[in-house]
Amino acid sequence: xxxxxxxxxxxxxxxxxxxxxxxxxxxxxxxxxxxxxxxxxxxxxxxxxxxxxxxxxxxxxxxxxxxxxxxxxxxxxxxxxxxxxxxxxxxxxxxxxxxxxxxxxxxxxxxxxxxxxxxxxxxxxxxxxxxxxxxxxxxxxxxxxxxxxxxxxxxxxxxxxxxxxxxxxxxxxxxxxxxxxxxxxxxxxxxxxxxxxxxxxxxxxxxxxxxxxxxxxxxxxxxxxxxxxxxxxxxxxxxxxxxxxxxxxxxxxxxxxxxxxxxxxxxxxxxxxxxxxxxxxxxxxxxxxxxxxxxxxxxxxxxxxxxxxxxxxxxxxxxxxxxxxxxxxxxxxxxxxxx
Length: 339
Ligand SMILES: O=C(O)CCC(=O)C(=O)O
Hints:
alpha+beta; 9-stranded mixed β-sheet; binds 2-oxoglutaric acid; Jelly Rolls; two-stranded antiparallel ribbon
């Protein structure tokens, strides 16, 4: 450990002792940004988790979801706006009346390219770690994080095998992703939408490489995220998708319940059969939006969706899935982290 690293860690601890969590995060982020530094990056994850600022439940909005008029009354697909038009009202209106909101241009091209590269590095570091027998190496791009209350350990191998890494396990990726969110300006909008401080889930916020021939599995994330949720997912492909690479297949509707799951031929107990989808939605058309790198789809626990694999697709898709929770309703096992 270099002297600078030791000094930075000590300075951050000093700030934490004074209760200044955000200042400690800012200090370590500034120090970690220029070059890989495992000690600083890893400490950042710990502080973001253990020091996470939360809104007390008594101060959270009494009513959920927030009430908004339908700002997209003529839209019978997915409402779509540009980043400059994004407001908490647009988000709330689209989610509650249409199930999701597509926002163009949330991450610029250079950020998308960096996160794609980060994904490859994180997956390579995870593979490298698995191949090492005996004492495992520490690595900025992959280091399992298993705080009390988390059960990421049970999902990790499956997750990595399917091309995903949680940001809680990828300390350097977390630095880049937090910078990307800061530059995008979406966190204050999500805070406005929640009416309180948001946190990210370190476990279900992931970078992912989705193969061209991925399985198509209908699901709603509310099936497994928990009960009494106040969440929004920023689903952000960092490569173009929807035509030659799988984007997202979805029913562009606000649903009001979690559909029954399991059944013949389903790989997981949280997926919904195509017959059930058809029966429940009355045969509503499935949409497959096309995305440029850096566009975002915002949706919540109710949206019925699947990886949008279609015959003839030839390219993989890279992307970020970032689940924000209203901090008063954060769920411990999903590893809340300050954003
Ligand atoms: O990225 C994908 O292909 C699937 C995403 C998904 O299922 C989700 O965000 O819940």
